[in-house]
Amino acid sequence: MSHKPALAATTPNRGLLILCLVTLCWSILVLQAGGFTTSIRAGMAFLDWPLSNGSVNPPGWLTEIDKFAEHSHRLAATGLGLLAIAIAVMHGLREPRPRVRLATYVLVGLVVMQGVLGGLRVLLDNQNIGGEGNVKAVGFAVAHAVNAQLTLALLAFIALSHSISWHAAKKDTARKVRRVGITAAILVLSVILAGAVMRQGHWTVWVSAPSEGIFIPSAGVGIVWWVNLLHRGGAVLAGVFVLTFAVMLARRGYSLPRWSSLIALLSLQVLLGVLSIQLPNNPHVRTVHLVVGAALFSSLCATAALVHRRAVDRRA
């Protein structure tokens, strides 16, 4: 009996992997719904929470786009909460690795926190819809957006822990690769934070001066201009580190999907960023830009965790 936990710890659990992948796909749907809600400024379609106009089936939510966006986001988020609980329960019953079990419990905490942050954003703004200087509501909205990214990244790590790549990892002591990967993830998260401030504070300056290129905002003053510049300039710096990380992975023999996916996501994200500037009135482009950014950040975090595992050669 003493060998069973060790054997289980080194063998991928297909059932838990499938559950994590299903939840990961569902979380992307939740993120897309939330991003679209923000893109069309429908976050205050209902002034109450957790119910919508006092109901789980409010009138007009299937016919009015703002109500549909917000209520579908709430329903999808509820489903994510149930899936997160299922992951924690199943891991508590079937997962022998303490750190992976702990990660699932933290996941539930992040999902609960996400719901609370979204609810506080509504409750604190119900008397000041779209008002200027509503720092509390915007602050909770930004925290809600960033917490979603962290939740998705943690979920990606849990799914990775059940993959063949994780269990078959061989020792790799390249400290520089680990540092570049972590730096790339931190920079991408910083860019996401600046983007969240722009979106939630309605500080997005889409217009750029032709003579200065697409990265220099030609409108806005003070902090608005600086946040836009930091988002665009930070994206360039983060992109350099992501590419460097991908090249390092390729040179050290990591699988083609592992490093090429980072390049593909980065390229798509840059394209969507340019399109967001060129098509400022298209909410779908901005929403997909948000979702791809989350996919890039999650992939970076998962890959950095895999590199760290190979470095320390742990069975956990």
3D architecture notes:
It is a single chain. This protein has 316 residues and is an all-alpha fold. The chain folds into two domains: 1-168, no CATH class; 171-316. Helices cover 72% and strands 0% of the residues. It has helices spanning 4-9, 14-39, 65-94, 98-123, 135-160, 164-167, 175-200, 222-251, 256-278, 283-312. Helix 2 runs antiparallel to helix 3 (65-94) and helix 4 runs antiparallel to helix 5. The longest helix has 30 residues, at 65-94. The protein is globular, with a radius of gyration of 21 Å. The two termini are 19 Å apart.
Query: What distance lies between the first and last C-alpha atoms, to the nearest angstrom?
Result: 19 Å
Tally the beta strands: 0
Number of domains: 2
Q: For the CA atoms, what is the radius of gyration?
A: 21 Å
Oligomerization status of the protein chains: single chain
Structural class, please? mainly alpha
Low-confidence stretches: 1-8
- The portion of residues forming beta strands comes to under 5%
Shape: globular
SS summary, helix count: 10
Major sheet: none
Give the rounded overall mean pLDDT.
86
- The helix fraction, in percent, is over 70%
